[in-house]
């Protein structure tokens, strides 16, 4: 059976006829309408080779093809040849088409560090990665009417910043234009093409969004002398707006290159206060971030900051001294808090600098306090997404999330850690347990920071003496009445032994 309709396919069918011998019968069936010219060629071929002429019209073929094909296959008298599949392609045409799509360079620049969160991470909690009130940068630029309401505020903040510092808009634009490679360098920070914005639109966005952030940070810093700005400021008059802005400004998809902020800061302000200090003070207004955003001095000369989210990450991980980059093995991870405590491991709050400075010594596991509130989950999720996407940062936050997940297996573990002052919880115990169980899902930890610590904890946990001692403490020393009962029992046992020994001595040494 030859299926086809083009001239090449008919010629191919003609060449096949000489190879066909009885008892095979060749059926030529039209799939689609062909010209009368090709119809006459096919009929001539059939007559010339004295082959049974079972030619169907289009209507007949559609009606009878199923029955015809079934009968042919049952009688084993049909060789099925799909001419359309065997027809040769135009190699040169396909080559030219594919060459036009080839790239000589990578679609990602070597300096890209601002990413869209991969769908495999986003699906766990999409709202943790999306801005609510303000868009910064190109990824969510003009994407919603909600963000359009912030346009006027951004323009007002830009104008206020320029007027207060006696800088003209023309001078600001000229200063940006004088920075060699400003536009290309800024575009290369983003992990996808920004071709939908031309040069003027892109630089305008950088200036407006960057100056908005600078003015926002200065208005929230008491050391910057700004007067009569909060009276009619829609962002300052709403008490909840600071939390909304903190949420949006620490999202991975909502970032500006740090060098853009530094450039604008140098062109518009006197730089009496370091930019890193201004930024961290703003996020320090949230109690959940206070513990690791209140030491500004160590970040003043940090030239490796990539964006605001990266600065917050540095504030968390820089004080951490104990770093061991090893492969993460599930067998090395510790048991849950309740099990470890039953084996004699004591949990205490650590007052060491930095959230990640966890230490284990002499059966005591010291962990800095973590405040868990509404902002905790989106912060950690975006930090982990940044570590997973960017090759230049070690998986330190991901390591912390993995360790905490193993320590918190249930709400009982949360309650124990809260009682020890290690967790300050503003959510439900079950919510905290669920939070850590999904934080690092679908991620890969390539350099686990707590490998040595976990090995020490596991070795202590396996010691039988430690388990016996822990059981003794739990059963007899957990409250004052149990202690009194234990002491009384010991005294009674000692007196009984003394009396027995005295009796034996009297028996063997009777009085003379």
Describe the fold and architecture.
This protein is mainly alpha-helical and 512 residues long. The protein folds into 4 domains: 2-86; 119-317, no CATH class; 330-468, no CATH class; 479-512. The chain contains 24 helices and 8 strands. The longest helix has 29 residues, at 480-508. Mean pLDDT is 80; it is low at 1-5, 21-35, 51-66 and 75-83.
Question: Largest sheet, if any?
Answer: 3 strands, parallel
Shape: elongated
Question: In percent terms, what proportion of residues is strand?
Answer: under 5%
Structural class: mainly alpha
- What is the number of helical segments per DSSP (H or I, 4+ residues)? 24
Structural key phrases:
single chain; transmembrane; 3-stranded parallel β-sheet; transmembrane helix; 4 domains; mainly alpha; DUF247_pln; membrane; 3-stranded mixed β-sheet; 512 residues; disordered N terminus
